[in-house]
Amino acid sequence: MRDFDLKGMLKNIFSDTNQQSQTELQDKIDEKMLEKILEQNNNIENLEKTNMLQSALISIYQLAIIRMSMEAKLQQALDIIISIPLLDLLMRGGIYVLDKNPGELILKAQTNLPEEIKKTCPKILFGQGVCGRAAVNGKLIYAKELEINQQYQCKGKYPGMGHYSVPIANQNRSVIGLISLFTKQTHQSSDDIQQYLTTISAILAGIIEARYFK
């Protein structure tokens, strides 16, 4: 398989930005994380699939150095994520970010969320519901409708769907956000999909910390 030079690509991106943006973004990118991205994607045998996934990662990385609000960056990142055919996601989702109040994640970006969810889930409380459990544990959770309905806070809100709760953790492993993604009930999750979503969450952590927790 062709070796994908992500580090070289990032250096080229940095060369086109001002010094302040270069320093800010490079401070948020961990060398080991980049190696992990390369390793995970090189394990995917199909070159076309690899190119598609890598292209999405590049697009999300590039958002980090564009001058726009954090909310706008997260919105664009969310739209990229749910548009990746290989992930088999529904065209809806949300991204939550840690609020000033400890233990609360606030909805900062959303696409096509049902009105009921926007009204009843404008924030996630750590430990409550499927998303809250993922936030507390710092681990991705994929749940089908039956499991979701066992949580009082989520009961009846995801008819015929599955759901990914993907924590966004910083380098200290503190959860500072969460990606909420939806699938059809027939969706088959896999280690590759979950590793890829976790990789994306690591990129988003850099965006959130650079623009929100200054």
> How many strands in all?
6
Query: Helix/strand-derived class?
Result: alpha+beta
List the strand order in the largest sheet: 3-2-1-6-5-4
Report how far apart the termini are. 40 Å
Main sheet properties = 6 strands, antiparallel
Count of alpha and pi helical runs: 9
Order of helices and strands: HHHHHEEHEHEHEEH
Uncertain residue ranges: 1-22
Let me know the average pLDDT. 80
3D shape: globular
Q: What percent of residues adopt helix (DSSP H or I)?
A: 40-55%
The whole-angstrom Rg is 17 Å
The amount of beta strand, in percent, is 15-25%
Written account of the structure:
This protein is an alpha+beta fold and 214 residues long. It has 9 helices and 6 strands. Strands 3-2-1-6-5-4 form a 6-stranded antiparallel beta sheet. Strand 5 and strand 6 (175-184) form a beta hairpin. The model is unreliable at 1-22 (pLDDT under 50).
Describe this protein with a few key phrases.
214 residues, alpha+beta, 9 helices, 18% strand
List the topology elements.
Blueprint: H1 6-15, H2 19-28, H3 31-42, H4 47-63, H5 70-82, E1 93-98, E2 104-111, H6 115-120, E3 123-125, H7 129-137, E4 141-143, H8 145-149, E5 161-169, E6 175-184, H9 191-211
Antiparallel strand pairs: 1-2, 1-6, 2-3, 4-5, 5-6
